[in-house]
Amino acid sequence: MFDRPEGGSRALLVELDLGDGHIDDRMNELAALAASAGAEVVGRITGKRKRPDPATFAGKGKVEEIGASKGDTSAELVIFDHPLSGVQQRNLEQALGCRVVDRTSLILDIFAQRARSSEGKLQVELAQLKHMATRLVGGWTHLERQKGGIGLRGPGETQLETDRRLIAKRVKALTTRLAGVARSRATQGRTRRRAAVRTVALVGYTNAGKSTLFNRLTGARVEAVDQLFATLDTTLRRIHVPGAGTVVLSDTVGFIRELPHDLVAAFRATLAEATEADLLLHVIDASAPDRDDQVAAVEAVLAEIGADEIPQIRVLNKCDRTDLSTGVTRDPCGTICAVCVSALTGAGCNELRDALSERLAPETDASPTLPLPA
Fold it and tell me: What are phi and psi of 255, to 5 degrees?
């Protein structure tokens, strides 16, 4: 019998380069995710592999190195910046004698802590259950066993089968309730369209400064802290845009590399604000060393939810931390496609408001976005 170890807050981070590069940036992001989940990072392990090991992902030698570092740092938790299968997670926990968490589980844990609205809690629970259903066998192998022997055989089901049935039942109930949320949002969207209200959605990588920019443009007081996934629930505010009238601006959940597909699916009702917008403000952390990778990750999620064809203005935020000057960038046709701003200081926000006026004017045609300024 194998019971999963109890977790703790002292975390050892593991990042393996499988040929993707940017290992330092990825490790720093993992550390920020761990801190957002409430963990205390006590050590970091890096390495390179051509491909994941089927049994432990990291391989025998690296697992031994992780075990030695765990003893030296008194770590109570090992966090892998990679998705682990149920078998890999079980084998690692047996070898290391502590709880092992993968990237997907870590992100789901953060979302579970941050969800505030009833809709957000439903979405997170659905994603967690779908993730859990794929790895029940990985944690408790004794749940697979049925009682056997003369006089003990019967029509009963294993504990594992019971858990799977209960999870499937709960997933069905949550899916039904979220479908009702989606219908309600669709009705609200039709109401706005009938009233000819234009909509603008803020999208971008987590911690790019979307909520700070939202507060700057609307005067709202949405929580804005230097932390990954500080905002989960969509917030809507009306603003007046000269030349376009009343516009509804929405602040949506941030994206991240390798965002779990179950999480994207669960948050479709929330992300519908982006898919139904007339214009997207793609907020980019201009000071991030890997900003191009962050942009690519956001564009991938937008394509997954069907929002990649919506007109877009790229907002290069945090320009006060770079040598970029505030102002606008235009494409060869003269259409504004990017604006450099500092949401924290307000620099460049007037130019952004002018860009909204120009792009939301009734006669304005959508133009494709151009590469970021160097």
Answer: -100, 170
Beta bridge partners of 80: 14
| Total length of the chain | 374
Residue at which a domain ends, from 101, 130, 164: 101
pTM, entire model: 0.76
Give the Cβ contact number of residue 184 at 10 Å: 12
pLDDT, tens only, 258-305: 777 767 766 665 676 788 889 999 999 999 988 998 999 999 888 888
Q: Supply the DSSP string of 125-179, one letter for each residue.
A: HHHHHHHHHTSHHHH-GGGGPPP-STTT--S---HHHHHHHHHHHHHHHHHHHHH
Distance of alpha carbon 30 from alpha carbon 104, whole angstroms: 11
Task: Name the domain count of the chain.
Answer: 2
| Domain membership of residue 36 as a residue range | 10-101
Contact (Cβ atoms closer than 8 angstroms) between residue 234 and residue 123: no
Tokens of 122: 């439903």
* Distance of alpha carbon 223 from alpha carbon 228, whole angstroms: 12
